[in-house]
Amino acid sequence: MTTPDSASLPPVAFLGAGSMGGAVLRGLVASGIAPRLLATNRTAAKAAELAELAGVESIALEQRPDGNAVAAASADILLIGVKPAMVPDLLREIAPHVRPGAVVVSLAAGVTLATFADILGADAAVFRSMPNTPALVGEAVTGLAAGAATTPEQTALVRALFETVGAVVEVPEDRIDALSTISGSGPAYVFLLVEELTKAAREKGFDDDQARLLAEQTFIGAAALLAASDVDPAELRRRVTSPKGTTERAIAVLQEGRLAELFGRATDAALARAKELAAGG
């Protein structure tokens, strides 16, 4: 297996292509740089949905029980996207079929690199990743932690894969769970804010279409301005907040509600759950 150039990746298999794996899969399809993609899912209905994607060989495990083994034997990069509790059994199933030199990448929250090494062997090239669903539109941020047996070339390979769907942040494994509480769960926080701002617009007399446009385009525009700017969000906020103006009054209410403390508590709760998952809870 060689490190890909900017035009291609080696064959990639998604063992379990649910919401997160499916987002990365669809992002890779859109990028056009993976010549062969395989995906397994339990049901024929889900497999049929993915089979409609260009270049994807989709396998339904209810029709082909050995599908995970077949996919594992056919790819140089294996992305493990099943539920965390299912990971050990899946690894035991595919261990005899993993190609020499293949890279195994976990998408499962809370499952440690040690779990992978215990089943696949200490010399297995394993990574933990934490992408987020904006991979669907090529705007993900993915946390990536390399296992002890990986090489710089393999790290470059996996980084190249995730860079097709967004930005990559390399971190030690002990930061992956914390990262998941910010960027992994973060899109849900943003969507919740849009949802609540839309409700506030409706309560002020706007119809559904107007309320949705006002809230959604405000977030889209603010994100675009942030991306195009060379200043930090605090400064951009100050530029909107005229002294003694309406925005200043609104910001004061949000601060009175201890918004910073609320985000701290929310991300702490997510981190506690990640630790429960790691412990098998």
Strand content: 5-15%
CATH topology of the largest domain: Rossmann fold
The CATH class of the largest domain is identified as Alpha Beta
Question: How do the strands of the widest beta sheet line up side by side?
Answer: 3-2-1-4-5-6-7-8
Number of domains: 2
Q: Determine the structural class based on helices, strands and strand pairing.
A: alpha/beta
DSSP summary, beta strand count: 8
Identify the CATH homologous superfamily of the largest domain.
NAD(P)-binding Rossmann-like Domain
Q: How many helical elements?
A: 12
Could you explain how this protein is built, in words?
Residues 173-277 form the Pyrroline-5-carboxylate reductase dimerisation domain. It is an enzyme of class 1 (oxidoreductase). Catalyzes the reduction of 1-pyrroline-5-carboxylate (PCA) to L-proline. There is one protein chain. This protein has helices at 19-31, 44-51, 67-72, 87-94, 113-120, 152-163, 176-184, 186-203, 208-228, 233-240, 246-256, 259-278; strands at 12-15, 37-41, 56-60, 77-80, 103-106, 125-130, 140-146, 166-170. With 281 residues, it is of the alpha/beta class. It has two domains: 12-176, NAD(P)-binding Rossmann-like Domain (Rossmann fold, 3-Layer(aba) Sandwich), CATH 3.40.50; 186-277, Orthogonal Bundle (ProC C-terminal domain-like fold). Strands 3-2-1-4-5-6-7-8 form an eight-stranded mixed sheet, with helices on both faces.
Brief sketch in words of this structure:
NADPH binds at residue 68. GO terms for molecular function: pyrroline-5-carboxylate reductase activity. It contains twelve helices and eight strands.
